[in-house]
Design goal:
alpha/beta, 6 strands, elongated
């Protein structure tokens, strides 16, 4: 095989795709999407504020309405200048003689936009551990969650006082504890948010998955287009089929590497300590993960292994069939092999050293995605990484041998869709 021929073909494949607008749109869009996914929920939850005008009908006779009003006012005072406060404008009402008429009047006030919602506290509801909430829209589950938590606190304190206990003392002794997470490594422990680590691992997994699928499909479609337009016959007269295959795969691989390099650079900036905090105003206790060099190195290695593995499959499919419609039916097999690791996403992130995670990461067709996910979460033992390299490389060698034999015959075969027996015959006699 002449490498200069493969180089010329690869150069043409690379320049054609890199100069396209779609390449740059996708290249810019994904880092922007990851930035929004990493920062957006935090900013929205911490910076967004809302106000609800709430009428409280206290039919308990225990002053729970005023207690609730004071509790919500105290919480808003604690959050002054803070983030994510849901403000309540509370109006406490005594129960009227006619409960049905009062309820109807409150409903009219809601529809007239005079109040946003009203709640009803009575002994019967408290005995069932519930209270009534009426609003024109009940989809505001965040507001309801805050209100429910505060009503529960006020009612529980009132119940303790009624039973003769010191509710303030009990409340101080039963404050929920939040974990302060720190990631342990040989370089030393450092604070890191668990949710941030999840998004980093998910982002790397998603990028690898998307690039393998997109560029694998491009190889298949490119082979089919050249085959259907008979361009491949001209190329086959000048270069060997293996040179054509190597050039096409190499060029598209470089396109994918170019895109991944830009994405990883953007991700490194987004996860660098202090940089993101200087770009947007984050809470003081927000902790973001950092992108370690070992993760970056393994990311590119597993991309190359995954790309070569699935590129041979897509190239073999493209050479075997005459149209995209025919090829898509068989390409579903390759898609299943790429999508299958997504089934292990949550179990691997939650327990990267579990038996399921170890076995899945050593299956060659799952290795590029699952092992990369394990490394992003917690670096596995070196022998497992080395074993995954060896097994995947051996599988690639077998797939390249198989693909070259099918490719050599398939690109010049036209007419009816080949059967599996015919493809096996190509492999045996090519």
């Amino acid at each position: 095989m002449r490498l200069d021929h493969a180089f010329i073909i690869g150069k043409r494949e690379y320049l054609t795709r890199v100069k396209g607008k779609g390449f740059w749109i996708a290249t810019i869009a994904l880092p922007a999407f990851i930035a929004v996914m990493m920062v957006g929920p935090t900013l929205l939850m911490t910076k967004a504020s809302s106000e609800q005008r709430l009428a409280v009908v206290d039919a308990t006779g225990g002053g729970l309405g005023e207690r609730l009003k004071a509790a919500l006012a105290g919480e808003q005072k604690d959050r002054r200048g803070g983030a994510g406060a849901i403000r309540f404008d509370i109006q406490v009402l005594p129960p009227a003689a006619g409960a049905a008429a009062q309820r109807a009047e409150l409903d009219r006030q809601v529809l007239a936009k005079k109040i946003d919602a009203w709640i009803w506290l009575d002994p019967r509801g408290l005995a069932s551990n519930e209270f009534e909430y009426h609003a024109e829209s009940v989809a505001n589950f965040i507001t309801q969650s805050v209100l429910s938590r505060k009503v529960s606190t006020v009612v529980n304190q009132w119940r303790l006082q009624q039973a003769g206990y010191d509710s303030a003392r009990i409340a101080s002794l039963t404050v929920p504890l939040e974990p302060r997470t720190e990631r342990v490594s040989k370089a030393g422990s450092r604070a890191e948010g668990g949710l941030g680590g999840f998004f980093l691992a998910f982002a790397l997994f998603f990028m690898l998955y998307m690039v393998i699928v997109i560029y694998g499909q491009q190889i298949m479609q490119g082979v089919i287009e050249e085959k259907s337009s008979r361009v491949v016959e001209v190329l086959a007269s000048a270069v060997k089929p293996t040179e054509l295959m190597a050039g096409k795969m190499g060029g598209i691989c470089l396109v994918a590497l170019t895109q991944l390099t830009i994405w990883m650079a953007a991700l490194a900036v987004l996860t660098a300590p202090g940089i993101l905090a200087s770009l947007v105003v984050l809470p003081a206790d927000a902790r973001l993960p950092t992108l370690a060099p070992v993760v970056v190195i393994n990311f590119f290695v597993f991309f190359l292994l995954g790309f070569l593995l699935f590129a041979t499959i897509y190239g073999m499919i493209g050479a075997s069939f005459n149209s995209v419609q025919e090829a898509q039916q068989v390409a579903a097999i390759a898609v299943v092999l790429v999508v299958a690791p997504a089934l292990f996403l949550m179990p691997v992130i939650n327990a990267p050293d579990s038996r399921l995670a170890v076995i899945a990461s050593l299956i060659p067709f799952f290795t590029p995605l699952v092992m990369m996910l394990r490394i992003a979460v917690k670096t596995p033992p070196l022998w497992q990484i080395a074993t995954s390299y060896v097994l995947t490389t051996a599988t690639i060698s077998a797939m390249v041998w198989l693909c070259a034999r099918v490719y050599r015959v398939g690109i010049l075969m036209y007419g009816k869709k080949p059967t599996l027996q015919e493809i096996v015959r190509w492999v045996r006699y090519s």
